[in-house]
Amino acid sequence: MNKIDYLSEKFILTVARWYLDNFSRDSTTLEQCEEKLRKRLNTDKLDMCFLYFCDRTAPIKEPIGTISLAANDIPKHPKLTPCISNLFVAKKFRKQKIGEHFIDFAKQKLRKLGFEKAYLYTTNPTIHVWYEKLGWKIIAEDTIFDIKIRIMETKL
Fold this sequence. Notes:
CATH superfamily: Gcn5-related N-acetyltransferase (GNAT)
Number of strands: 7
Strand content: 25-35%
CATH class: Alpha Beta
Largest sheet: 4 strands, antiparallel
């Protein structure tokens, strides 16, 4: 049975490695990623992080993906809140609608927290097309660390 659960201390190192390999700049350390994740151990307020567990993994107790909900995660745009960030699914489990499931879960969680809109940004030059299929709209373009980003918004 597939399950989404809150990040626990037990999996911080695993998720920190995912962050380092997939989201961080060259100067970021594993320790900095771990520190960021410890700030996302909340279960009743932002910032929080979730893990996806899949019954096709051996053992099932290992996560295959992560997503975060943050008060703000878009540099230079502090008024855009809340943010969905760091969506990651292990390569072996991609193209199985886990990302869509994660986004639906995140939107539902934010609605329960009282929000009406959510924001995110993408650095990948084509992933915005996937988000648009899920109902997100590009509301701005900017650069962060000399990387072009697309800032997106969705109604919850």
